[in-house]
């Protein structure tokens, strides 16, 4: 097949391009900018566009399909040319479904934890040498790409994102996969630029549950009351398997998971991560991995990239980097670190970077989110707010939203970096939570600062 990617440089898009290239498809692509690591990875396979920009002449009648990335716009000239030539245009999830119609589709969804659960499942399957196709939202240790597609594998494991599919397909991605086996980790309002009300957001999960094939399986977190209600209301004829946080304890800064064979040390920590582990166990069992084999494999799981990722450590300090940005995830991650390291000072830094987190109305959802930290810091960029065309946010609004009098708020990246550099790192855990970079922070320098 001959496929052209519009916006090939995206994290998911370039991984799909690499996966199809590995299947011997002919691949071309365009983008107005391609950043690392996408740039180097595409270059190594000869897939990096020679020029940045959009070129309608790349769209020719001999193309079998065009895959449209979320980064492109509706008036993209290459998209318009493809439409004129009646070339099939797919969104990223739409094409993944086309590639997996004949497979057993396992879809991991939920407002939080889906990358970690998908990563756990793939780690366990790889450990037991069970080959599957997959798509995951983070780079995993031991896996070359975030997307892997074959003709022969029976299963495909898909991380099911609730965000929109493409500029011309406003359906959430996970609505397109039609799972045989599904997992939902929980519901916490997010993406308010797309789902302006909580009720509208919840409806997307109701639709997802109804999209599971008849006779299929839904594994769900029964501790989430909203999700439990949705599952009880569905008329879809599916099997339902609830899970909850397993028994565990923390001893000498180590998490011990209670198993039928006794207490087992695990690298991941925090109630939310142990809850993720319980969900992953159910999914693996439905894929033919028994409980004992699951525990054997999961004991060596170190975590997904940017999910409580330990990026620096000395005898006096530890630094974690985490993708957390939504209120529920920020609260869960901060609590997890304090629970794991009760005798250390927890310095929690959150960057408000997403459309939702910079929305003045949504900010109130963060009330108490950083209360578990000994020192709480929030960084945001007024310039980012302007770029997103949002109403200005005053520092006072941040203080009121988080409801913490000793909160430190920074809007200048140099001042924020100076705070980290001059911090007294004695029995300290530094937790950096962001889906951005704090205005260009060099994370590699932190190892020097904590010495």
Automatic annotation (TrEMBL):
Q: What is the lineage of its organism?
A: Bacteria, Pseudomonadati, Bacteroidota, Flavobacteriia, Flavobacteriales
Molecular-function annotations in GO: acid-amino acid ligase activity; ATP binding
The Mur ligase N-terminal catalytic domain extends over 3-102
- Limits of the Mur ligase central domain: 108-280
Protein known as: UDP-N-acetylmuramate: L-alanyl-gamma-D-glutamyl-meso-diaminopimelate ligase
> Which residue range or ranges hold the Mur ligase C-terminal domain?
307-431
Q: Which GO biological-process labels does this protein carry?
A: cell division; cell wall organization; peptidoglycan biosynthetic process; regulation of cell shape
InterPro entries cross-referenced by the UniProt entry: Mur-like_cat_sf, Mur_ligase_C, Mur_ligase_C_dom_sf, Mur_ligase_cen, Mur_ligase_N, MurCDEF_pg_biosynth
Arranged from A to Z, the UniProt key words for this protein are:
ATP-binding, Cell cycle, Cell division, Cell shape, Cell wall biogenesis/degradation, Ligase, Nucleotide-binding, Peptidoglycan synthesis
Q: Enumerate the SUPFAM superfamilies for this protein.
A: MurCD N-terminal domain (SSF51984), MurD-like peptide ligases, catalytic domain (SSF53623), MurD-like peptide ligases, peptide-binding domain (SSF53244)
């Amino acid at each position: 097949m001959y496929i052209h990617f519009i916006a090939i440089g995206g994290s998911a898009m370039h991984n799909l391009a690499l996966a199809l290239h590995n299947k011997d498809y002919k691949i071309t692509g365009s983008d107005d900018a391609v950043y690392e690591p996408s740039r180097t990875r595409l270059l190594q396979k000869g897939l990096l566009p020679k020029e940045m920009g959009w070129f309608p002449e790349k769209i020719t009648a001999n193309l079998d399909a065009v895959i449209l990335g979320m980064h492109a716009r509706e008036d993209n000239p290459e998209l318009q040319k493809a439409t004129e030539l009646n070339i099939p245009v797919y969104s990223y999830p739409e094409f993944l479904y086309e590639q997996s119609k004949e497979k057993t589709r396992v879809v991991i969804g939920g407002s939080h934890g889906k990358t970690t659960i998908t990563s756990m499942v793939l780690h366990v399957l790889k450990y037991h040498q069970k080959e599957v196709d997959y798509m995951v939202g983070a780079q995993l240790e031991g896996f070359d790409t975030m997307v892997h597609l074959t003709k022969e594998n029976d299963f495909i494991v898909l991380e099911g994102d609730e965000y929109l599919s493409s500029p011309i397909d406003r359906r959430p991605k996970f609505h397109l996969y039609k799972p045989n086996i599904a997992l939902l980790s929980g519901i916490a309002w997010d993406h308010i630029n797309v789902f302006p009300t909580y009720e509208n957001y919840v409806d997307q999960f109701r639709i997802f549950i109804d999209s599971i094939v008849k006779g299929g399986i839904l594994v769900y977190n029964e501790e989430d009351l909203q999700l439990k209600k949705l599952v009880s209301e569905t008329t879809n004829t599916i099997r339902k398997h609830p899970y909850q946080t397993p028994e565990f304890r923390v001893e000498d800064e180590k998490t011990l998971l209670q198993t039928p064979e006794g207490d087992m040390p695990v690298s991941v920590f925090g109630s939310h991560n142990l809850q993720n582990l319980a969900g992953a166990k159910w999914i693996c069992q439905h894929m033919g991995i028994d409980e004992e084999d699951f525990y054997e494999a999961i004991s060596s799981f170190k975590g997904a990239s940017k999910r409580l990722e330990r990026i620096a450590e000395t005898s006096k300090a530890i630094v974690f980097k985490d993708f957390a940005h939504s209120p529920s995830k920020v609260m869960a991650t901060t609590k997890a670190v304090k629970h794991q390291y009760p005798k250390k000072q927890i310095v929690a830094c959150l960057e408000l970077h997403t459309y939702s987190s910079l929305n003045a109305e949504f900010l109130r959802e963060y009330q108490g989110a950083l209360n578990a930290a000994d020192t709480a810091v929030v960084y945001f960029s007024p310039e980012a707010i302007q770029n997103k065309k949002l109403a200005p946010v005053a520092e006072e609004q941040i203080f009121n939203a988080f409801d913490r009098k000793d909160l430190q708020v920074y809007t200048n990246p140099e001042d924020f970096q100076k705070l980290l550099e001059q911090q007294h790192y004695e029995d300290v855990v530094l937790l950096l939570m962001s889906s951005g970079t704090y205005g260009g922070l060099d994370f590699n320098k932190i190892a020097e600062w904590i010495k």
